[in-house]
Amino acid sequence: MSTKTDITFYDTISNIEFKTVSLNTWRVRFILNYKKIPYTTVWLPYAQIATTIKALGAPPTSFMPDGRTRHTVPTIVDHTNGDKVVTDSWTIAQYLEAHFPDHEHALFPAGSLALQASFVKDTLDAMGPSGLVFSLAPLIIPHVKRHMDAPDVEYFEALWSPLFGGVPLDSLYTPETWKGIEGAFDALDKVYAASEGQGVFLGGTQLIYADFVVAAALVSVKFGVPGEDGWERVAKLNGGRWGRLFDAVQPYCQNDW
């Protein structure tokens, strides 16, 4: 039986209109809205994420090169299951699928879990030119940084700069950035083309988790870099496929359900 708020959802906050453009937290927010799970968001400045999430008792999501633990968002607390704490977008997605089953809104149709895991890891989250998130980062990150308060800027720089060889985040965007973005979307377009004529999603008319991973990247561009050298350009790529995909998931863009 649902309580007034089944889930407390921890997300980042910045000074943009829609509060957050985190590619990782949007994956979970989409799922909560899609499954209509009652939840409340706790908005965290970047500088407060690690201490807050660690205090919840959440396990680290990764480790720094010097061995220090990293505690990140998204993180949820499930009040229907003894205040269970779950962190990491992939882990949370599987948890919500198992504990809030809904055949009509299944994220992992039978037999698709391993395929989606491979697709997300090797095509969307790959740390290199083939990865969609990696290719979009030089476009999104400098813009997001400009909407942060000073303490968060320092934390954000320390978090992301090492992933790009220590380069200052303001210098990530170069004349080659769009070449990488278009290449990543071209590769993704070939996958989506297999469902051409059946619907806008990977499964045709059925949304699956991998669609929300792609949609989270689109939302990050739309809300983080909304102009003609950002979302307007992305939306038109590949015959307008990504604009249509965003339109299809827009009903699940609420802040709290």
UniProtKB/TrEMBL annotation:
Signal peptide: none annotated. Residues 12-104 form the GST N-terminal domain. InterPro entries: Glutathione_S-Trfase_N, GST_UstS-like_C, Thioredoxin-like_sf. It comes from the Eukaryota. It holds the Pfam family GST_C_7. This is GST N-terminal domain-containing protein. It comes from Exidia glandulosa HHB12029. The lineage of its organism: Eukaryota, Fungi, Dikarya, Basidiomycota, Agaricomycotina.
